[in-house]
Write a sequence for this structure.
């Protein structure tokens, strides 16, 4: 593999309401909102990675091609917290054994347990039971 000076600087999430979405993710991740520039709302940079929300006119449609995997020592408790903040569980993915959630604009993300967990030969997890 060739060396590259390219690094991921920030992840940007399109949002019809970037203030609302930034507030959700700020509370969920414990990263305060630190700036607003043009159509962007920014959370505090951590581990040299920025997270921003960009105003867009069109709402999300279809499944995300990329999503966040978040870890927690208690995924079930985090599910309740996500729901209290305005997110929801996506039951259509329950068969895969992962805790798949959606933020208030429908962007999918997973809540995984801290540490290792098993996957079967089909790539399904079983950490929720």
């Amino acid at each position: 593999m060739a060396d590259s000076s390219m690094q991921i600087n920030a992840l940007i999430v399109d949002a019809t309401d970037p203030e609302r979405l930034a507030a959700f993710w700020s509370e969920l991740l414990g990263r305060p909102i630190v700036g607003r520039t043009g159509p962007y709302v920014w959370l505090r940079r951590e581990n040299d990675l920025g997270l921003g929300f960009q105003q867009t006119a069109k709402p999300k449609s279809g499944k995300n091609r990329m999503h966040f995997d978040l870890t927690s020592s208690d995924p079930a408790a985090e599910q309740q917290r996500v729901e209290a903040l305005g997110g929801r569980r996506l039951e259509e993915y329950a068969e895969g054994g992962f805790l798949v959630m959606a933020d208030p604009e429908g962007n999918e993300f997973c809540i995984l347990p801290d540490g290792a967990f098993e996957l079967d030969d089909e790539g399904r997890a079983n950490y929720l039971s």
